[in-house]
Write a structure and sequence with these properties.
single chain, alpha/beta, four-stranded parallel sheet, 5 helices, about 15% strand, YeaO-like
Length: about 110
């Protein structure tokens, strides 16, 4: 399975395959039609507390990465997502944040690819 990552605000493409929104909150100002999301999996998103600490309280990227990996370490949410993705050749994990280099979708992709 090929897993790509992109901002949910980018236009959907035929190459996206199965599109999975991995944010806890629905993206501001984006209609469900425009988002073209096949699955919205809030369970693999960072907790509200962790999201706020990173985006609003200045938590460092290394601290966020460690905390997020700890949150999903039990594997239940990730295993459930893997089951949902079974049978799809291409999956695109969608996120809303502006930072394309420091976001939980990249970390989640790495976990799913293991």
């Amino acid at each position: 399975m090929e897993i790509t990552v992109k901002r949910v605000y980018e236009d959907p493409a035929s190459t996206d395959g199965y599109r999975v929104l991995v944010d806890r909150l629905w993206p501001r100002g984006l209609s469900k039609e425009r988002a073209a999301v096949d699955l919205w999996d809030k369970d693999v998103a960072p907790s509200s507390e962790l999201r706020k600490a990173f985006h609003h309280e200045g938590m460092s990227w290394p601290d966020f990465e460690a905390a997020y990996r700890a949150e999903i370490a039990d594997g239940a949410a990730v295993d459930a997502l893997r089951e949902q993705l079974a049978g799809h050749d291409t999956v695109t994990l969608l996120f809303a944040t502006h930072d394309e280099e420091h976001n939980h979708a990249l970390l989640l992709r790495a976990v799913l690819q293991r």
